[in-house]
Amino acid sequence: MHKSFGNLDAAWKEASFAYKSVPFFRNRPSLTPAASPAAGFLDIPMTSKPDYRKNFPAGVLADGRSVNDPYVQRYQSSGTSGDRLVSVIHAFKLADRMANCLSVNKSLSFLLDEPKIRMCRYAAPNCSDVECSNPNTRMEDRILQDGTLVLPVYHDLLTTPEPMLKRAFDELHSYEPNVWYVDPMHLSVLIKKARASGWKFDMNRKVSVLLTYTFATQALLRQLATLCEGHFPVASVMAMSEFGFVGLACEEGNLHLNDKDYYLEFIKMEAPDDRDDLWELVITSVGDKLCPHIRYRTNDIYRLLGQCKCGSAMPAVAFQGRVKDLVRLPSGRYVTPGELDALVGAPRWIDIFQLTFQKAGNFIFRYSGEVEPNADELATLRSKLEDLLESKSLRMEAVHYFPFERGGKFQLVRTG
Length: 416
What we know:
Keywords: Ligase. One of its GO terms (molecular function) is ligase activity. The protein is α/β, with parallel strands linked by helices. The protein folds into two domains: 2-323, ANL, N-terminal domain (Rossmann fold); 347-415, no CATH class. The chain has ten helices and 20 strands. The strands form four sheets. A twelve-stranded mixed β-sheet has the order 1-11-12-13-14-10-9-8-7-6-4-5.
């Protein structure tokens, strides 16, 4: 099953341009007419990250374009070893995509009137191509070409030395950003440290907090609300290094994907259970004359929500995680990070949690928090998790430490 959103004519123009002007696409079989534009578009082979990594730069840039052209910005994905990707985008395309995404959330409208977006980024080291994990770097060494300041950050977030946390806290204020572009886990750790150490956030600023990089669980959102609610607007962002902003959450909290700058296709995943209403997102860029992406598989999985109360015409979706993060149960059902988060919720006794899937259907649910659960709370969550996982082989552990990916990202669901 297939659903699409956006301007199909614009997507065809993008594909025609790519097959005429980009070496990688020119080496593929030519586009062929079909009975209908929609059916014909489905006949175009999909692309994926390896295609762009293997052929970068000459093979995937349009004829006559260069990574050194004016207004070209370079981004490096945060994938782990062998999976990283360098992407290039025109700065004005990035700005258009960001502005269209911001339009779905009125609390962020002040950013559209700002003469310049001044951003601080706080996320895993692999999410940046500057040296931010070295405690000896200066602030000036960590400013990107677009003016974004990358705050100092440790590879293993939960063991970050206090001086690095303090420097990140100080720079978050001294740089005077109007956007905190952060991993929710990283900001949560910084807030906790500030509270414990008596560091005071300046709440008299006009700042927006945009959450991205990793899954913003309800438990993390509860913690961030204690600092930001009533002061700073907070919204989750779906962003990719290949495209920049792809979607943003409205004031209702629902994620809307940008169907103005992209043609969005959702391909339903095959599953034997009707509850697995899961769709993989495939993106075609629109109007990209530098490095067009045609039917690009994101490996991101969503549920489609229908019309949102906010009134935005952009499609509302619920992000469920990446393909690699899905757990396939013996029954054939999938368990997604999104489904797990919806079940766990934001009880006062959980700040961070992680589910580990082991062989033979064994699971470990690890959690940490500043409050101890009572026996009934623990038993209730266990029962819900056993139903979700279709397994009684579940161990629940209160811990003080969680392993992170090699690149510094936190996995809500892991195998091991």
